[in-house]
Amino acid sequence: MAGIAAVVCAFLFRPSYYERKKKVEHGQSKGDTPAQPQAHEEQRPDVAEIIIAKHRNGPVGSIDAMFDPGFRTFSDIDVMRGPD
Prior knowledge:
This protein is α+β, with helices and mostly antiparallel strands and 84 residues long. The protein is built from 4 helices and 4 strands; from the N terminus they run αβααβββα. The chain has helices at residues 2-5, 15-25, 39-43, 77-81; strands at 8-13, 47-55, 61-68, 73-75. The chain starts with a helix and ends with a helix.
């Protein structure tokens, strides 16, 4: 069991990744009519949820972050949006 000795267990969840994977598994190609996007995809397609499931010396919870697929990096959402 890896979780027993771990100090921190974190998970990344990107809904857009799983939607894209689902389309490929169902045989939908780029030329096909796309399925209706989920509400979270229409508003923020590159948002990732960072989930801290275990933290031996701190709190657990989750936060949203922007994912930049070009550089494969995560950033604070406010940094990516820029000034309003």
